[in-house]
Amino acid sequence: MTATSPVLRAANLSRSFRVRGTGQEVRALRGVDLTVPAGSAVGLVGESGSGKSTFARIVAGLLQPSSGELELMGTGVAGLPERRRRRLAAPIQMIFQNPRASLNPRLPVHRCVAEPLLAQGVRPARQEVLGLLDRVGLPARVADLHAHELSGGQCQRVAIARAVAGRPALIVADEPVSALDVSVQALVLNLLKDIQEESGTSFLFISHDLGVVRFFCDEVNVLYLGQIVERGDAESVFADPRHPYTEALASAVPDVSDVPDGSGADRSRRIVLNGEPPRPEQPPPGCAFHTRCHRRIGPICDETAPELLPTATGLTRCHLRA
Amino acid sequence: MTETPTTPMTETPPADPLLALDRVEIGLAADPQVRAVDGLDLRVAPGEAVALVGESGSGKSVTAYAALGLLAPALRASGTLRLGASSYDLGDPGALRPLRGGEISMIFQDPGTSLNPVMTVGRQLEDVLRRHGGPPRRERWRRVVDLLAEVGVAAPDRVARAYPFELSGGMRQRVLIAMALSCEPRLLIADEPTTALDTTVQAQIMDLLMTLVRDRGMAMLFISHDLGLVAGSCRRMYVMYAGRVVESGPVADVLRRPRHPYTKALVGCRPTADRRLARLPSIPGTVPPIGSMPSGCRFAPRCPIAVEQCRTADPELRAVGGNVSVACLRASEEES
Ligand SMILES: Nc1ncnc2c1ncn2[C@@H]1O[C@H](COP(=O)(O)OP(=O)(O)OP(=O)(O)O)[C@@H](O)[C@H]1O
Ligand SMILES: Nc1ncnc2c1ncn2[C@@H]1O[C@H](COP(=O)(O)OP(=O)(O)OP(=O)(O)O)[C@@H](O)[C@H]1O
Ligand code: SF4
Ligand SMILES: [Mg+2]
Ligand SMILES: [Mg+2]
């Protein structure tokens, strides 16, 4: 790995799943290009079922891509023997979407947290583990409990403490703060920023919380039906979305000012997506979003697939691009 | 705020609730003095959506589990649950069982661990329908597919035939929502029901839930850490800290003018800032672990306005006007 090579580079990455009992396939990822430069935080947002976790699991080596290339730390993984692949992925830590299921139920919390260090042959002092727990706002008492004795947010924080324990080069975080109240969420995000600064850790950060992505990420990628439909720096993508799907996502962020004022008036700015969500077995022809798009221009949208092309601030996959 | 005729009925604690939880205490079975929840009262009326928010680990989920008689064996509850005209002892989980999945249903916080991994989700939904007198056998599958379509999953027929591991996090969460709604409960307890959903699907699910509340008179206890979502859906809210309710009242009042220092701090932590901050504000310190609660106010060690008395006197939840109740010795002093 050279100083400048990205920690993660995916090129034209695709993954399909066979649907049992039919000849069909779910096309979970369709030609995704994505790069995580060393030391940066790259966000991945998008519709539920659009392929975010599939991408994360391919990076973690839990799934094979159907086609396309994947490079970790500057080395292509295709055709690597399992042992070399695992060695290459050693500096990568995952925070899974379902924190409770990702913790070994038979181990006390302090062992779960120490796991990545033990894997490196380092036995951390108890004090070090307690220090990590403290940084995610968990009292020392938690160290001797098991996952089933913890609340949802406590499990999630244990998973985070474990992920940062070994100071990895890359953390793939799938909804890492979704179960946390705002104060604890802030504590954890600040910690992740500190780790990034102290150790140069990079992040692939998957989240449905656009506010969190905007705070934490340098760049954001918006996925729809297995394809990236928009990319840009996190600030401009949400402040000035170029793709209609991103626009709809950003418009539906709940806000404290949504509290009804008694007038009965609907003050929402929300763009409602009409129409059935398309099936990933049969992505619509033309623009994949055209069946629900509130800005559809005309037949071109139904017939011609737009490409991911540059705008003033990033990339977008829409014929409206201006 | 004074009571005016235009104040919607639902903003006052209902005199005739569907659900009333009284004096709920949840402690370790091995050591009942160690409590996760310590003296909670809560009401939800038919056609009312009520929020339960609070610090991670403050006791929201265990309260919900206790109401369903589903606490882990290591925990024991006491207190009463009233549902309409009937009363139940929370210490007797067996008595609560008949209510589950019929009168009361719940959307669990962990979609990943609440489904049977070796059965297709369609079969699991069919089972729920069968147990609760759903449509006759021939029509059951049709109903399952319809239910999945209602919660907005693409390709509901494929999803019905899939095993949980073949679904995304948000799809599993919507399967659980469909399951909870399939038996048309009178009371729905929704524990972080939309955390795995993108904002547009989340909005669609909230529309569905609010339609059931408004049109079918379903009562909903909505557990969430998303204050924006609470603002847009619920009329009243309870704020928990370290096993206690520290503030309750109409959502509009509590969010616009929080009075408990914890609520104030929580509302202040929202990442609302449009510009990029170097760091997010968070409440300094950590929540005390169950079993070592400080004497006096449980928030005192982290409270910016605590005085000596806060460390010795345990504040009661008391009305401060406008249907708001606050458990803080200094709540009214702060006002003036
Ligand atoms: N092992 C599998 N077998 C079959 N289909 C799968 C499998 N894993 C994922 N899929 C399908 O691939 C698609 C993408 O799933 P994925 O979990 O990547 O979505 P996601 O973007 O993470 O969604 P969410 O935000 O809901 O977690 C879904 O349609 C899902 O059903
Ligand atoms: N089986 C158990 N044995 C011992 N303690 C438990 C058990 N289950 C929960 N607890 C403790 O009870 C407290 C309350 O947990 P609960 O799950 O209700 O929190 P919560 O408010 O739902 O938090 P979150 O927002 O993180 O989900 C926590 O401190 C937790 O550690
Ligand atoms: S290409 Fe057409 S249908 Fe697709 S997002 Fe743009 S305007 Fe909408
Ligand atoms: Mg996912
Ligand atoms: Mg919980």
Automatic annotation (TrEMBL), chain B:
GO terms for MF: ATP binding; ATP hydrolysis activity
Fetch the InterPro entries from UniProt. AAA+_ATPase (IPR003593), ABC_Ni/Peptide_Import (IPR050388), ABC_transporter-like_ATP-bd (IPR003439), ABC_transporter-like_CS (IPR017871), Oligopep_ABC_C (IPR013563), P-loop_NTPase (IPR027417)
- Cite a single GO BP annotation: peptide transport
Q: Tell me which UniProt keywords the record has, alphabetically.
A: ATP-binding, Cell membrane, Membrane, Nucleotide-binding, Transport
Q: Which segments of the protein form a coiled coil according to its record?
A: none
Q: Which Gene3D superfamilies match?
A: P-loop containing nucleotide triphosphate hydrolases
| Recorded topology in the membrane | Peripheral membrane protein
Q: Where in the cell is it found?
A: Cell membrane
Any single GO CC term annotated in Swiss-Prot or TrEMBL for this entry: plasma membrane
All copies of domain ABC transporter, residue ranges = 21-267
What Pfam families does this protein map onto? Answer: ABC_tran (PF00005), oligo_HPY (PF08352)
Q: Tell me its family.
A: Belongs to the ABC transporter superfamily.
PANTHER family on file: DIPEPTIDE TRANSPORT ATP-BINDING PROTEIN DPPD (PTHR43297:SF2), OLIGOPEPTIDE TRANSPORT ATP-BINDING PROTEIN APPD (PTHR43297)
Recorded protein name is ABC transporter ATP-binding protein
Q: Could you tell me which species this protein originates from?
A: Nonomuraea longispora
